[in-house]
């Protein structure tokens, strides 16, 4: 899959799945803009890795839940490269607690980053995608947003809403040549899963029919497929990459 | 370029012709030409038969050609009632003619 002359934005692109996605696009020739919220060390590491590729790139810091920050960051990308072909709404946070212990602040922040952030970034690029009559928006969701998960009412609600958002936007812009889809990773080996208790991780692994956790590269492969011309007739879908978990 | 644009905007007949061509080209209409479009015919539903997805592309085209931003859907619906109404809307909102230089934002 060749992404030469394509401009790609990946939010939450300095670690884990987002980093793998951004690097995969860079290795396929895309111009890549990585957006991150607070992880300056991760951003520096990512910048060093992007410099080893032949890709043009930008690393931008800002809060995707802030309309002014999103307008500023997307504006920088458009100023630099004049267009955005692919947006990967990957940035997301968890603040897991059972509902009876969950604060309003935790509810709001998870919904703000995961749902409002997806809305703001998509809105910031959609007009020029309509003008170009081309675009791909790929939203990262979660099995929690499909099946639900105890302790994740806020996160699951945000991801379920992103799936509904995806299906609706897909119908709005399908005729104009813009594809909007979700990728739904299951249990993937990332810094987030590294923090899990080994026993919990083993329990999770046993639940996966393929008997192993996935890799960020396997998720990136799915994202690149949906962003490519080979997925030209696919929109409004959720591509689950979970080893058969759900 | 700016002078040419101002000439088009200030000449109602030329502006209406431009908009008819813009509609046909933007929406890649195949069974209708610019000359077939009557200036007073409604663009949507029973008129030309355009729909809300066509409107997205027309809003972007108007912004691209005339630097007139339509951010309010209801304003857009009124502005796109017909070619003649749209021409009047652009003549009112076109930045080059605006007294205070503000662009319309709904």
Structure overview:
The complex is a heterodimer of chains A (246) and B (106). Chain A has 246 residues and is an alpha/beta fold. Chain A has helices at residues 16-27, 40-51, 67-81, 104-132, 144-147, 153-173, 191-194, 198-207, 216-227; strands at residues 7-11, 31-36, 57-61, 86-89, 135-140, 178-185, 238-241. Chain A has a seven-stranded parallel beta sheet, with helices on both faces. In chain A, strand 4, helix 4 (104-132) and strand 5 (135-140) form a beta-alpha-beta unit. Chain A is globular, with a radius of gyration of 17 Å. The model of chain A has no long low-confidence stretch (mean pLDDT 96). Chain B is mostly helical and 106 residues long. Helix content of chain B is 54%, strand content 0%. The radius of gyration of chain B is 13 Å and the shape is globular. Classes of the chains: A alpha/beta (246), B mainly alpha (106). The interface between A and B is small, with 8 and 7 residues.
Largest sheet of chain A: 7 strands, parallel
* CATH architecture classification of chain B: Orthogonal Bundle
Q: Gap between N and C termini of chain B, in Å? A: 27 Å
Largest sheet geometry of chain B:
none
Q: Which spans of chain B of ≥5 residues are poorly predicted at pLDDT below 50?
A: 98-106
Tell me how many strands of chain B there are.
Answer: 0
**CATH-defined superfamily of chain B:** ACP-like
Terminal residue distance of chain A: 28 Å
Number of helices of chain A: 9
Strand content of chain B: under 5%
Q: Tell me the domain tally of chain B.
A: 1
């Amino acid at each position: 899959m060749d992404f030469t002359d394509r401009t790609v934005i990946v939010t939450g692109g300095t670690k884990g799945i987002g980093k793998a996605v951004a690097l995969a696009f860079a290795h396929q020739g895309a111009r890549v803009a990585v957006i991150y919220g607070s992880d300056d060390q991760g951003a520096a590491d990512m910048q060093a890795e992007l410099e080893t590729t032949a890709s043009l790139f930008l690393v931008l810091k800002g809060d995707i839940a802030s309309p002014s920050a999103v307008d500023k960051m997307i504006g920088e990308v458009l100023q630099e490269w004049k267009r955005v072909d692919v947006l990967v709404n990957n940035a997301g946070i968890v603040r897991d607690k059972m509902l009876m212990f969950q604060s309003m602040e935790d509810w709001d922040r998870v919904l703000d980053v995961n749902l409002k952030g997806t809305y703001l970034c998509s809105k910031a690029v959609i007009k020029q995608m309509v003008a170009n009559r081309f675009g791909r928006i790929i939203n990262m969701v979660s099995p929690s947003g499909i099946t639900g998960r105890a302790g994740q009412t806020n996160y699951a609600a945000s991801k379920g809403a992103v799936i509904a958002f995806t299906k609706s936007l897909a119908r709005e812009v399908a005729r104009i040549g813009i594809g909007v889809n979700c990728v739904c990773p299951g249990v993937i080996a990332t810094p987030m899963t590294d923090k899990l208790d080994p026993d919990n991780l083993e329990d999770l692994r046993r639940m996966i029919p393929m008997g192993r956790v996935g890799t960020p590269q396997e998720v990136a492969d799915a994202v690149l497929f949906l962003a490519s011309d080979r997925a030209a007739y696919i929109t409004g879908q959720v591509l689950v990459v979970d080893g058969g978990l759900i | 370029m700016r002078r040419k644009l101002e000439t088009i905007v200030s000449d109602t007949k030329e502006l209406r012709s431009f908009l008819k061509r813009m509609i046909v080209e933007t929406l890649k209409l195949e069974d209708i030409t610019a000359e077939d479009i009557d200036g007073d015919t409604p663009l949507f539903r029973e008129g030309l038969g355009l729909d809300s997805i066509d409107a997205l592309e027309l809003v972007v085209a108007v912004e691209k050609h005339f630097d007139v931003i339509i951010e309010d859907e209801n304003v857009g619906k009124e502005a796109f009632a017909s070619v003649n109404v749209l021409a009047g809307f652009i003549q009112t909102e076109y930045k080059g003619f605006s007294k205070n230089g503000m662009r319309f934002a709904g």
